[in-house]
Amino acid sequence: MSDKDPTEKALFANTFGSLLAEEPERFRSPSKRKILYFSYLFKKMRGFHMKSAVEISKHILLFLLIVLSLILVVLFPRDVEIRAEGRAQTVIYDFQFSWSVYQENITSFFSGLYQDKSLGLTKYERPVEEEMKLYFSRSIKIIMTAFLLSSIFGILKGVYDASHPSPLGMIFGKGFTWVLQAIPDFFLFLCLQWVLIIYFKDYVDLFGHDNWYSFLYPALLVSIYPALYISRITAASFQEQSDKQYIMVAHSKGLPQAFITFKHVLKNSAVPILNHAGSMMIYILSNLLIVEYLLDYKGAAYRLFEAFNVMPVLSVGLNTAIEPNVIIAFGTSFMLLVLIVQITSLLIKRMIDPREGGV
């Protein structure tokens, strides 16, 4: 057992201290102590994997239940009759539910999925899988870039907010964060878009998805609110750590503040931040539609909205049919992203924190 690992030595002593005290002769040789130590690591690894497997199973089960609920809701019959009656030609919206139609929708969906290994065709007579590949490949660049920007700038902003409690620091720190979070995201997106159109329209093309850099501006917009969210979590976690004994010991040793902040405090604040990684991804996905729609970026959220066939008015003969297979495919893909982030953050959290079963 290495002398450079005091945490492991303490855990080892707490676990096997009584055994060594009761039978010191049995474990006097270094080889037997190594065997005892490796058996301790094996038990700890087994406990780590068991706890992780249970938590991951819960997340997967919840994911499957949500996907099943999505399928049942989307396949609900929506055959409506829109007609005009009377001298005033009043538009009547009539709907009658049918269990047989509902059962047929569910049966045809799962039979096509099982027999044809396909989600079917879209209203453009293209396979759903092709449209998934086309549209999702555009949005994934926005999502991953926004997640990275939110994580980096959110943590840095949280560190700044926690490190500047003075009145001036409050203006540019927590106060600025609160003001930005109080502004509706739709209004903030419109203001930023208006500024960029006026001052930068001759330099970059802000609309569409044809240029190689087209995903950068949407990713920047999408990352604003998740970054503010993570900054508040980081600042709160840093404030909880500020009065801990190891901080005072580090200061007494004359260690630089930057070293203490990023080496010790940030490491001990990682678990609360990782606990909110899934929520940050949900923030990103919830803002994705607004940004793609405003910027005419034909991504997955844009195509999902199109599949709902939203109409601003009702008129006689209006086609109200949706694309259930497209909605199920894109909705499941978005939820799968959240699941991946939750499982990844869970595994990282358990590896870096001994209290979570880390090794």
TrEMBL record:
Return the InterPro entries for the record.
MetI-like, MetI-like_sf
Keywords for this protein: Cell membrane, Membrane, Transmembrane, Transmembrane helix, Transport
Q: Which residues form a coiled coil?
A: none
Annotated membrane topology is:
Multi-pass membrane protein
Asked if the record carries the keyword Cell membrane, the reply is: yes
Transmembrane residues, as ranges? 60-77, 142-160, 180-200, 212-230, 273-295, 302-322, 328-348
The superkingdom listed in its UniProt entry is Bacteria
One GO cellular component term? plasma membrane
Q: Where in the cell is it found?
A: Cell membrane
Question: Domain named ABC transmembrane type-1: which ranges?
Answer: 136-345
Listed under GO biological process in this entry are: transmembrane transport
Return the similarity comment: Belongs to the binding-protein-dependent transport system permease family.
PANTHER family listed in its UniProt record:
ABC-TYPE DIPEPTIDE_OLIGOPEPTIDE TRANSPORT SYSTEM, PERMEASE COMPONENT, INNER MEMBRANE ABC TRANSPORTER
Protein name, UniProt field: ABC transporter permease subunit
Organism equals Metabacillus idriensis
